[in-house]
Amino acid sequence: MRLRSLLFATALAGLAAGAAEAQTSVKLGVMNDRSGLYADIAGEGSVVAARMAAEDFKAADKGIKVDIISADHQNKPDVGSSIARQWYDQDGVDVILDVPTSSVALAINQVTREKNKVFINSGAASSDLTGAQCSPNTVHWTYDTVMLANGTGGAMVRAGGDTWFFLTADYAFGHALERDTAAVVVKNGGKVLGAVKTPFPGTDFSSFLLQAQASKAKVIGLANAGGDTINSIKQAGEFGVTQAGQKLAGLLVFSSDIKALGLKTAQGLVLTETFYWDLNDETRAFSKRFGEKFGGKMPTMVQAGVYAGVLHYLKAVEALKGKDAIAVVNKMKELPTDDPLFGKGTIRADGRKIHDAYLFEVKKPEESKGEWDLYKLVSKIPGDQAFRPLEEGGCALVKKS
Fold first, then answer.
1. Which domains, from first to last, does the chain contain?
2. pLDDT by residue (tens digit) across 381-396?
3. Residues whose CB falls within 8 Å of the CB of residue 63, separated by 6 or more in sequence, listed in order
4. Closest alpha carbon to 75 in 50, 51, 107, 49
5. Reduced to 3 DSSP states, what percent helix, strand and coil does the chain have, rounded to the nearest 5?
6. Which of 111, 194, 200, 347 is deepest in the core (most CB within 10 A)?
7. Are 129 and 106 in contact, with CB atoms under 8 Å apart?
8. pTM for the complete prediction?
């Protein structure tokens, strides 16, 4: 009898150990601006999106335990790098998500590679993340400066806006956006008449707008984002820039920016996004649930990218039954992407997520049927036309593949 009890206890212990081994624990760190000019674009909304992804995936039912933490990088590369090192070295974080502000994202990209973890970026725009600074540990999910240039820049030139002057936020994102948009302008037969670098973050754009006016360029390209874009558009209105015949090109504009500006100020603005809450039945269903969890606000493109990125990461972890960083990223590239917010797509060898983009025009106040009814669709841009061709980015991973 004693032997039978001993054997039974041993068997139970073995089963318990097996169950423990079968469960994979992953820790996700959502890092973004939670208090500054990009807080509405990302902020707590990105944390809500990450939680929704884990819940919708039913991770616990599939033997995956998901913990989610968050931090504010304050738009400073040194702060972001310090948080990343603590998360990776001390707090057991496996994946860093979101990270708007390209200078911070490029720093996190390097730390993640050094520590052999995973970085799924949704918030930053610099195409260098999948170009010269591409990494086997990084996936760039939502958008980038090439896509924005091809979308908004290309559309403006084709519509007759063939001379440009740039107001450029003076850091990695602004420089990349000006560079990539200028290339599209020239490629389409246009000319760049000048550019001015603006402090980041900025509040007074008056002197820069006066330089843009003096250039007589048909288009003033705003190579900035968030609060900088909102302030520069408001001040352009005060200076009568558009009334005098020049057009503003908001090269990176989010639905939260339009909401802050109001349709009266923003009407007619052309912009490019890869997600809009009112795009189809699936985006509307998700956005309704998101709004119920986040004070009635509709998700931005960045927040949607966090949701979709987490879903696909968890699919790769489930398929591998493990979380080895390189193996997971390779599995993410191997598996086709398919989610309710971005539809079907792929992740290329350089880490660039490919999906469709959309050219929108901001509605006039009388065209809007509700608080968040902001855009009308102008055209869809297929993913293979929206993003940079694989062989043109200069990514070392492509040469090796």
1. 24-143+279-351 (3.40.50.2300), 146-273+357-382 (3.40.50.2300)
2. 999 999 999 999 999 9
3. 22, 23, 24, 318, 321
4. 107
5. 50, 20, 30
6. 347
7. yes
8. 0.91
